Amino acid sequence: MKIENPTPLQWRFSERAQKLQSSAIREILKITMRPEIISFAGGLPSPATFPVERLKVAFDKVLSDQGKVALQYGPTDGYGPLREWVANSLSTDGAKINANQVMMTSGSQQGLDLLGKVLIDEGSKVLVETPSYLGALQAFSLYGPEFVSVPSDDGGLMPETVATLGQGARMLYALPNFQNPTGRTLSVERRQALVNICAQLGLPLIEDDPYGALSYRAEPLPKMLSMNPGGVIYMGSFSKILTPGIRLGYVVAPRALIEKMEQAKQATDLHTSQLTQMVVYETIKDGFLDQHIPTIRKLYSDQCDAMLDALQTYFPSGVSWTRPEGGMFIWVTLPKHIDSTKLLAEAVEQHVAFVPGGPFYGNTPEQHTLRLSFVTVPPAKIRDGIEKLGKLIASKI
């Protein structure tokens, strides 16, 4: 029976929902889908690195041999053999990681959200780098923290400032390897200093490490997890070394925290896809990454060099940029009078895109900064895009 003159539904969003904002990067990516755009915007790994055939074989084997298990519900903390693999890969002579300290997540972004749920109350102090990863700021913001920006320089986060800023904080979030967005790497000395200071304060230190394997010129530096397994929460991902489409990350932490995160995850999605976890394990269990990761490093290193060469050739004086030794990003600092958000609108008209720097700051944004990603653009297009962007910047100096 039809209701006569129904009252229009009154959507009453929660205060939390009203504070939600779209990711600046995701909005820009809508623009970059246009084929004529040379996009330095997305933090997307190159599709050329995706091991499609290897994954196809793994899917077929898992479904043929263990299909009924792979397609069933799984445990909240993840597929046992894969958790064991993660634990073994992170263990060192001085720091043994157990599988019960590992929880698989639906992408590392879910790991950030779960950490926010179990560690942050409204008004909690959360320390972040200056600038910091936009996805983490977005995930944590939902829980109403008070962000405290830790000063950084060309060497990254400055540990000595944490001793004062960290008093009463719930956690410190850091990306020590080829940081997103700056590409900076924290030295061994700064890592140890940061670990020591956080231990003295009883401050949980989150070490987010999605890019650590992508070092161009040397072996990756020691993980902060190995310096203090009881005080460091480590986050890893398969997105940058296999494919982001599988949405598989992991968190390594003391068991008491893992248990709370499991409870929070049960309320979110029960468990991460059993099928994709089993496929990833089948793909990597026999050492595939030892052969695969060097090919990614070579590709990204060549494209990074192409962008650095183009920046040196085409960008005007008064502009500076980082020189990463790994990862996917270069951070550009413009003269202070140039607003990179306004610059983006003009750059798109020239068929070039990047990410303005403002959204990467937990507090006061520096609008004269921007992030460039080079890994999905071939060298010839990198040169073309940087030349156009350089001319546009020069016209404003």
CATH class of the largest domain: Alpha Beta
Radius of gyration: 22 Å
Q: What strand line-up does the widest sheet have?
A: 2-10-9-8-7-3-4
CATH topology of the largest domain, by name, is Aspartate Aminotransferase, domain 2
CATH architecture of the largest domain: 3-Layer(aba) Sandwich
Hey, roughly how much beta strand do the residues contain?
Answer: 5-15%
CATH-wise, what's the superfamily of the largest domain? Type I PLP-dependent aspartate aminotransferase-like (Major domain)
Largest β sheet strand count, sense and barrel closure: 7 strands, mixed
Task: Give the number of domains.
Answer: 2
Spell out the blueprint of helices and strands.
Layout: H1 15-18, H2 24-32, E1 38-39, H3 52-70, H4 80-90, E2 102-105, H5 108-119, E3 125-129, H6 134-141, E4 146-150, E5 152-153, E6 156-157, H7 162-165, E7 171-174, H8 188-201, E8 205-208, H9 224-227, E9 232-237, E10 249-252, H10 255-266, H11 274-284, H12 288-314, E11 320-321, E12 329-333, H13 340-349, E13 352-353, E14 355-356, E15 369-373, H14 379-394
Parallel strand pairs: 1-13, 3-4, 3-7, 7-8, 8-9
Antiparallel strand pairs: 2-10, 5-6, 9-10, 11-12, 12-15, 14-15
Fold and architecture overview:
- By secondary structure, the chain is α/β, with parallel strands linked by helices.
- It folds into 2 domains: 142 residues, Aspartate Aminotransferase, domain 1, CATH 3.90.1150; 216 residues, Type I PLP-dependent aspartate aminotransferase-like (Major domain) (Aspartate Aminotransferase, domain 2, 3-Layer(aba) Sandwich).
- Helix 5 packs parallel to helix 6.
